[in-house]
Amino acid sequence: MPKSKSNSQAKSNPGFKHDIVDRKYEGIKEKDYLQLLYLMKLTRSAENRVVKLYRQGKVVGGVYLGTGMEATAVGSAYALDRKKDDALFPLIRDLGAHFAFGQHPKVYFLQYLNRANSPTKGKDGNIHLSDSSKNIIGMISHLSAMIPPAVGWALALKMRGSKGVTMNYIGNGGSQVGDFHEGLNFASVRKAPFVLIIENNQYAYSTPNTLQYACEKLSDRAIAYGIPGYQIDGTNVLEVFETCWRAVQRARSGEGPTLIEAVSMRMRGHSEHDDHKYVPPHLLEEWAKKDPIRRYEAFLLEKGLMDEKSMTELDQRVEKEIDDAVQFAEDSPLPEPQTAAEGVYAD
Ligand SMILES: Cc1ncc(C[n+]2csc(CCOP(=O)(O)OP(=O)(O)O)c2C)c(N)n1
To answer: Is it true that domain 36-331 has CATH number 3.40.710.10?
Structure first.
């Protein structure tokens, strides 16, 4: 039987209306153009594969995806530099940020398959994925509770004389919780090197934005903190990268935090157990036209940086990397039962 193809192998469409302006994007070098596509494809392909493993009964617990949001996750974290002491505090939809910050796909599969050699040693599934050896700090489930510690990390960097920057993410729903205000206010007062990305994907589980907040733009809240705030197209990886790159440079030079609201759509259910029926189909159809990967592919084809052949080769490379990563994880051991209580609490 032929191997089934993942979405990342969908035939690229040069006629796809991409609406990405071909101009000089600050911070972007020639090599970055292709790397951004590779990272978005790697993300989607990895997530599609986890769905298959879930349906095969190999994944315990929920599967959370960032389909439609890859440009936000990849473009933002790609603006960071771990060699400069930067740190990443991602959420469940930010697999692309893990990859853009240098995490290997095999770690993602080790985590979802609860293997003993995953960073959480098989004690936590899904994307509560932490890897402090890489300055990736796993999420706290209570939404927005992660913002104050992420700001604390940023402040610690500053107090130690480091030039490192901390990037953290929050959803449109999570932005309505009190810690959002406390964290961002503290970061602003102390000029912490902190960048907060609001991933506005229209829904918080089944609750639409009309029932979440009454202001026009969430980025306008930055005015109240005396910091810059930008609302950007979260499906345009170049716009996301450039805005985040500027925010990171600003933070690195001691000028303090930035709030960035990246607007996109969560194209799947909250988790794979959620059939998404509360989203009107026309909305999904409209957002499908802004698919971040297809848009960017069409842009690169038009710009002449890729052709159909190199696109196919890239898809094959991504699929091979995902195949190898899954194989590695499936060949890895499950934790021994007697280790269940080890490492659960700090020593
Ligand atoms: C303080 C808090 N309240 C409720 C929940 C349960 N919960 C988990 S995810 C979620 C929806 C989050 O929506 P949003 O912040 O917009 O992020 P998205 O899932 O859309 O990326 C809710 C309500 C939680 N984790 N924390």
So the answer is: no
